[in-house]
Each structure stands twice: as structure tokens, then as C-alpha cells.
Design a protein that fits this description.
The complex is a heterodimer.
Chain A lengths: L4 E7 L11 E5 L4 E5 L6 H9 L6 E6 L2 E2 L5 H7 E4 L10 H6 L15 H13 L15 H14 L4 E5 L7 H17 L3 E5 L3 H7 L2 E6 L2 E6 L1 H4 L2 H8 L3 E5 L6 E5 L2 H11 L1
Helix pairs in contact in A: 4-5
Chain B lengths: L2 H26 L10 H7 L3 H35 L11 H14 L9 H20 L1 E2 L2 E2 L1 H25 L2 H12 L7 H20 L1 H7 L3 H6 L4 H23 L5 H13 L3 H25 L8 H22 L5
Helix pairs in contact in B: 1-13, 2-3, 3-8, 3-11, 3-12, 3-13, 4-5, 4-6, 4-7, 4-11, 5-6, 5-11, 8-11, 12-13, 12-14, 13-14
The chains are: A alpha/beta, B mainly alpha.
Chain lengths: ~270, ~325
């Protein structure tokens, strides 16, 4: 039972266009994992393969020793919840939106949510700090608040695995940290296994226990942030010169970008 | 009971009460006005001219108005939910265009003289063929491209209306008259078999659609979100489209083209009670029925003793209300 989520040699993609190579990795239960890599490296394709949006051409995905490929939509939704890059918006109250997370558990001819459904939705709205605007419309919230509501809905599905596609990419640093702190807390308190695509290498380093670095549709390397985020790996995969140091407080790698002028200054002082 | 459900109950009962009032007013108004207090006596006497007017003319007409209005409201509600666009209705998808073409073919070739049920059958086949065509043409890479589907629907409407013009230009003056009159829309249906069929189809449509009320709530957030919430989105959409084309096709064959009901009613219902399909489906059904009953009274009385085609009333009233609603929405901060 060490491998909770096991991606076993999957490939998937779009006909005639981009497709993934032979992807394999495994996550332990309760791991906070991140997928990193440059644009076009196949992060989103991999995400869609795992979430079931794209059919797998080869390989299989195992969650808690069950083949995910055998799930129907409802079973899949009970086991894994997905938070997209752009949170949904619309004229729906936050409470009604979060309650949609109970849909995978509805019985035939059940038109109304049970008291238990309401209690579960309330619990996760409290946890994500969205209960205070439960009667507001989703469209009246800020982007960060909408993202929190989307996470509350995902939690209401009570999944074993939480998948997030760049949950912080369009948020300011206040909300980035707020969302990631929430995910970290959920990961610790609920023992939830989290797999997310994340662009920002410093955030990935700080929050994730395990990183999967993608390049050209394949896994370039995987491991702890210290193993993966070396300047050699980053320069190789991103074609960009960086400096990596260790954050003195968290002891995790911190990545600094290098400007052209700084490069020439370094060259001059060396030469 | 939760406050939300209490609001829904009050809204539903309010609409039902308004519908009953409209029905009572409609049944007593017309060329021969009949006092409401006399109606029980007339109905129990089972004879005389007033009995005939009530049971053979006005009541079937009211039943038809409710069934057609309810079906159109429901169809609009389904389509707007699936397309996540408040401006679609049976006409924008080409469903009505296909149904009209089917019915026009039956009239030109005189097939309806063999059996009146040929008309609704042709309407349903036309609507279903259109939906099937639109659907297969919009599948790309194994998934449904909704924008493409909408465009193809508009194109099919154009093709169908051109084909109808062609049929009209080669048909006899008598056929031409009946096609034109039927296109304008009328609730005057002497065939009680067709009225019963319409009522049955509309109630069947309401029941089937209501089974999909919660999936529709998820579909409003998009097809892939609905899949993530465990809904079998493409199956649900397929079933909803067949039911929608059944209702729209039979509406067109029985009552002609009555525009704007499917557009305006679901929109108003959403503004009043919100976008939860568990109430808005019922609201659209009752609201559509109410709108057509009232429009029918106006159509019958405004230029009495003559009668306006009901499509004229719904077009003018619906279009005006829609423009007012749109301009009011602009002034408020945009919500969607």
C-alpha cells in the first residue's frame, strides 16, 4: 500500500497533434505532489489523462489498488475531484455551487439534497473560509474567492485524490499563498493526496513534497524538490539560466532568474 | 423546510394561481361571453350552443395553449441550460425549421388528408432529423463542439426556410394559403386527437426533463465540469435533445411557428427565481402556458370579431419584453 496513486506507462493525446510518451510515476497516500515543466511540455495533457477527460491509449492508472479505467463517471467523481485553472462563475449562490459536489452521491429519483449533504457542504465551506459568503452569487466573488469555492466544491465530493490545474496562476500573491496554505492544511489534516500542475517553481518548491518535471511529453525527472530543482535540470528543461540557492528557513531550493545584464556583469567580473 | 424550497413553493403556487385565473378569464371571454357563475350549470346541462362553445372550442383551445406554451418554455429552458447561452431557443438550433419543412412537405403532397397524425409525425421527424444532422456535424475529435453546433443550427434554419419557399412557389394557391396560415401560428385546432397528443407529449416532456434537473444544474457549468461531477454529460444531452425535438416538432406541427416563448419565458423565470433547474423547469412550463393563454385571449379579442395570429402577439410582446430586460441588465453591474 505504499503506492496510492500509480500511473503505469500511460500515453494519451489528441489525434494528429500532441501526445504524451510513456508516463509512469507513483504517489504515496497523503503526498502533496506537483507537475512542473515549460509550456507545451504536456502537463495539461497528462492532467487530462489522469482526470479521465482524455482516453488513455496505453497504460493504466491505479488509485488505492483499483484500476481507474473501470470507473464510470460517478465512481470517478467519488474518488477524484478536479479544480480547473479558471474557476466557474455564474448566477448561482456559493452554497448551491458547493452542494453540486454531492451530485456523485445522489440516488435515482433523488431531487433534493439530504440534510447530510447540507452538513458536508457546510463543513467544507467552513474549512475553506467560504461559509461567510454562502448566499452570495459566484459571479460577485473575486477570483481568489471563486477558487476557494471551487476547492470547497471539490472537497464536498469527499475524494481520495484532489487534482488541480494551476490553481494559483491568475491570482495575486495574497491569494496564491492563501490557496496553497489551504491545500497544505487539507493535505495535512485530512490526509488528502493532492496532485497539481503549478507554473511557479518557487511555490512548487515550497509547498510540494514531490515534483514531476515534464519535458516534451515525457517525465524528465521526479523526486523531492531538492532532487528535481537543481540548476542543471532547470537549465536543461527550460533552456534558461537560473541560480538556485537554499531558502535558509525552509531549507528548500529557491530559484532566481538571471537577466542578460546580470549575465554580462558576471562574465566581466570573471573575465 | 429550507427557505430556498419555501421560495420555490410560493413561486410555483403563484404561477399556478395566475394560470388558473387566466384560464377562467379565457374560458368566459370571446364572441359569446359566458359568465363564470353559469359555467357549472352549462357543463351539467350538456346541451345548447354555450355548451358546444365551451367544450368544443374554448376548452380545447386553452388546453392546447398550455401544452404548446409549456412545451416551448421547457424546450427553451433545456436548450439554454445545455448551451449556457440565454439567447438560444428551438428556432436558433434549426429544430423548428426542420419541423416546419417536414410539415410543409406533408401539406404540399396532401399526405395529411390520409391521416391527420401525419402532421405531428412529420414535425417530429423533421425536428429529429435536424437535431441528428446538427449533432453529427458538430462532433469533432469525439466530443461535442457546442459553438459549431449553434452555427450549423442557424444554417439549417436558412436551408429549411429556403426549401419551404421553394415548396410554396410550386404549390397551388390553396396549399399556399394553408401553409402561410399555419406558419403564422394558430391555436385553433379542430382535431381533438391532436390536442390530446400535444397535451400528452408536453406532460411526458416535463416528466422526462425533470429527471435531468440536477444534471442540468451541473451542465450549466459546462460539459467537462458536469463530467467531473459524475454526470454522463453526452448521454444526458442526447436524451434531452430527443425530448426537446419531440416537443418542439409536435408544437410546430399542431400550432405552427410561435416564436419567442422559448426565449423569453425561461429568461424571465431565471431572473425571478434563479437558475436552479429543479424550479426553473416547472416555472418555464407554467410560465409558457400562462403566456400563451394570455396571448391567445388578446389575439382573439383585440380586433374582434377578427382574430390575430398568435405568433404576432408573442413576437411583439416577447420581443419588447426581451429588449426591456436586456437594457435593464446593462445598467446593473454585469452578473454573468
Amino acid at each position: 500500500m505504499t503506492e496510492y496513486l500509480k500511473i503505469d506507462g500511460i500515453s494519451c493525446g489528441y489525434s494528429g497533434a500532441f501526445s504524451l510518451g510513456n508516463i509512469s510515476f507513483a504517489l504515496k497516500k497523503g503526498v502533496f505532489a506537483g507537475i512542473i515543466g515549460p509550456n507545451g511540455s504536456g502537463k495539461t495533457t497528462l492532467f487530462r489523462g489522469v482526470s479521465g477527460e482524455l482516453p488513455l491509449r496505453h497504460g493504466s492508472i491505479w488509485l488505492n489498488n483499483v484500476n481507474v479505467g473501470q470507473f464510470n463517471n460517478r465512481q470517478r467523481a467519488q474518488n477524484m475531484a478536479i479544480v480547473g485553472q479558471f474557476p466557474e462563475t455564474g448566477n448561482i449562490t456559493v452554497e448551491d455551487y458547493v452542494l453540486l459536489g454531492r451530485l456523485p452521491y445522489r440516488k435515482a429519483l433523488q431531487f433534493f439534497e439530504t440534510d447530510e449533504d447540507y452538513a458536508i457542504a457546510k463543513k467544507y465551506m467552513r474549512l475553506t473560509n467560504t461559509y461567510r459568503f454562502k448566499d452570495k452569487l459566484l459571479s460577485q466573488l473575486s477570483g481568489g474567492e471563486q477558487q476557494l469555492a471551487a476547492i470547497a466544491q471539490a472537497l464536498t465530493q469527499e475524494p481520495k485524490l484532489l487534482l488541480l490545474d494551476e490553481p494559483t496562476s491568475h491570482l495575486d500573491i495574497t491569494h496564491q499563498v492563501q490557496v496553497l496554505n489551504l491545500l497544505q492544511r487539507l493535505n495535512e489534516e485530512l490526509g488528502l493526496t493532492v496532485l497539481m500542475i503549478i507554473h511557479d517553481l518557487n511555490l512548487a518548491s515550497e509547498y510540494c513534497d514531490y515534483l514531476i518535471m515534464m519535458r516534451e511529453g515525457e517525465v524528465y525527472c521526479k523526486g523531492t524538490p531538492t532532487e528535481v530543482l537543481t540548476y542543471q535540470n532547470i537549465e536543461e528543461v527550460y533552456n534558461t539560466v537560473v541560480i538556485t540557492l537554499t531558502n535558509p528557513n525552509s531549507l528548500k531550493p529557491a530559484i532566481f532568474l538571471v537577466s542578460e545584464r546580470m549575465m554580462s556583469n558576471i562574465d566581466k567580473s570573471n573575465g | 423546510m429550507r427557505k430556498k424550497y419555501l421560495g420555490w413553493l410560493l413561486f410555483g403556487l403563484g404561477l399556478l394561481a395566475a394560470l388558473v385565473c387566466a384560464m377562467l378569464y379565457s374560458v368566459s371571454t370571446g364572441e359569446v361571453s359566458i359568465a363564470l357563475s353559469d359555467i357549472p350549470r352549462i357543463l351539467s346541462s350538456k346541451e345548447g350552443m354555450e355548451y358546444f362553445v365551451l367544450t368544443q372550442i374554448r376548452m380545447p383551445r386553452i388546453v392546447l395553449a398550455i401544452a404548446v406554451g409549456g412545451s416551448l418554455g421547457l424546450t427553451g429552458s433545456i436548450l439554454q441550460g445545455v448551451y449556457r447561452n440565454p439567447l438560444v431557443e428551438p428556432y436558433t438550433l434549426g429544430i423548428s425549421g426542420g419541423a416546419s419543412l417536414g410539415v410543409a412537405i406533408v401539406i404540399v403532397f396532401g399526405l395529411h388528408t390520409i391521416n391527420m397524425l401525419m402532421l405531428p409525425l412529420a414535425g417530429f421527424i423533421g425536428a429529429l432529423a435536424t437535431i441528428f444532422l446538427v449533432y453529427t456535424l458538430s462532433i469533432r475529435k469525439g466530443s461535442l463542439d457546442i459553438n459549431r453546433m449553434l452555427l450549423i443550427g442557424v444554417m439549417i434554419s436558412f436551408v429549411a426556410s429556403s426549401a419551404m419557399m421553394f415548396l410554396m412557389s410550386i404549390s397551388t394557391a390553396e396549399d399556399l394559403h394553408s401553409i402561410v396560415f399555419w406558419i403564422m401560428g394558430s391555436l385553433d385546432e379542430p382535431n381533438t386527437q391532436l390536442v390530446r397528443l400535444m397535451l400528452g407529449v408536453s406532460l411526458f416532456g416535463l416528466c422526462v426533463t425533470y429527471l435531468f434537473a440536477r444534471p442540468l444544474n451541473a451542465l450549466q457549468l459546462g460539459q467537462s465540469k458536469a463530467e467531473h461531477l459524475g454526470i454522463n454529460a453526452s448521454t444526458a444531452i442526447r436524451i434531452l435533445f430527443v425530448v426537446a425535438s419531440l416537443m418542439a416538432g409536435i408544437c410546430v406541427s399542431v400550432a405552427g411557428v410561435i416564436g419567442f416563448v422559448g426565449l423569453i419565458i425561461p429568461h424571465l423565470v431565471r431572473i425571478i427565481i434563479g437558475s436552479d433547474f429543479r424550479i426553473s423547469l416547472i416555472g418555464s412550463f407554467l410560465g409558457g402556458g400562462l403566456f400563451l393563454v394570455v396571448s391567445d385571449v388578446v389575439a382573439r379579442t383585440i380586433i374582434a370579431p377578427n382574430e390575430l395570429p398568435i405568433g404576432v402577439i408573442t413576437g411583439i410582446v416577447g420581443g419588447l419584453i426581451f429588449m426591456v430586460v436586456l437594457s435593464n441588465m446593462r445598467r446593473k453591474p454585469k452578473l454573468s
